[in-house]
């Protein structure tokens, strides 16, 4: 598919053999809007909350720079959008997939983690980093960490990295273009409805562990800025921005 043609969705798609971190690379440069960097391996892959992301050859490591030109408080939706794209790619390979808010991709009946998303913001835009486990990985489990799995272990019928990368980039564009056209409004663009349909966290009892304490409640809904609203046991609604959660136990 012609991802970088004049009317195609991406400014450029670069594939490198090895780099420390595709996110770090795009954060450093001043790339044009919708620049894509893919690495066959990362030697210092970054995960959320200063964790590392195991990135041996055989996995998919993609970062995209977006300067979406929509209000910055709506940028967190890009990370939720990445989750939507991942669910649809995993399902296209015949694998059962759901999301744990904000953006963990859980695969198979065992609901193990198959992918992660790390978004970092610059003054003009967002570097959206996506790591998808295709071949089995050895990952260290942090406290509250989810057991890892991969498309291969869940019996996917497509494991070709180029094909999977193409599907992922097309799927991202399918949701990002209308979201941007709607000035980042997830309700108008249909993104919210799509996300909600894939996210198992909503409606569940959760324990939110923040840096400065924790509380229990029921995950209720998402706001226009991607915040999760959790009703605590006293009946108060509390907003939990994606960046603040350390662990969300369900
Ligand atoms: C997580 O902790 O769940 C997020 C993992 C994000 C990993 C991806 S791989 C491509 C991009 N480059 C990085 O260094 N990290 C992200």
From TrEMBL:
CDD domains: BPL (cd16442)
Keywords, ordered alphabetically: ATP-binding, Biotin, Ligase, Nucleotide-binding
Pfam family, one: BPL_LplA_LipB
Region (Disordered): 1-13
Residue ranges annotated for the BPL/LPL catalytic domain, each copy included: 1-180
Family annotation (Gene3D superfamilies): 2.30.30.100, Bira Bifunctional Protein, Domain 2
InterPro entries documented for this protein: aa-tRNA-synth_II/BPL/LPL (IPR045864), Biotin_CoA_COase_ligase (IPR004408), BPL_C (IPR003142), BPL_LPL_catalytic (IPR004143), Transcriptional_repressor_C (IPR008988)
One GO CC term, this protein: cytoplasm
The keyword Acetylation appears for this protein: no
Protein name, entry field: biotin--[biotin carboxyl-carrier protein] ligase
EC number(s) given by UniProt: 6.3.4.15
GO molecular function, a single term: biotin--[biotin carboxyl-carrier protein] ligase activity
Enzyme class: ligase
């Amino acid at each position: 598919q012609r991802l970088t043609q004049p009317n195609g969705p991406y400014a450029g798609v670069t594939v490198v053999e090895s780099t420390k971190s595709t996110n770090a690379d795009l954060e450093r440069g001043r790339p044009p809007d919708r620049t894509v960097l893919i690495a066959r391996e990362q030697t210092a892959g970054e995960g959320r909350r200063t964790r590392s992301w195991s990135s041996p050859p055989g996995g998919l490591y993609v970062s995209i720079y977006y300067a979406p030109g929509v209000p910055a408080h709506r940028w967190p939706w890009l990370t939720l959008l990445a989750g939507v794209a991942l669910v649809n790619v995993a399902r296209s390979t015949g694998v059962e997939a759901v999301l744990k808010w904000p953006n963990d991709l859980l695969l198979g009946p065992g609901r193990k983690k198959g992918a992660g998303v790390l978004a970092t913001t610059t003054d003009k835009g967002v570097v959206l980093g996506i790591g998808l486990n295709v071949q089995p990985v050895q990952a260290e489990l942090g406290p509250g960490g989810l057991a890892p799995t991969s498309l291969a272990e869940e019996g996917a019928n497509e494991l070709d990295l180029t094909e999977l990368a193409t599907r992922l980039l097309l799927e991202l564009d399918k949701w990002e273009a209308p979201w941007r056209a709607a000035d980042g409004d997830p309700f108008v663009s249909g993104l919210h409805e799509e996300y909600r349909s894939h996210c198992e966290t909503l409606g569940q009892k959760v324990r939110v562990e923040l840096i400065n304490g924790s509380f229990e409640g029921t995950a209720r809904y998402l706001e226009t800025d991607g915040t999760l609203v959790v009703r605590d046991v006293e009946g108060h609604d509390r907003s939990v921005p994606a960046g603040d959660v350390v662990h969300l136990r369900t």
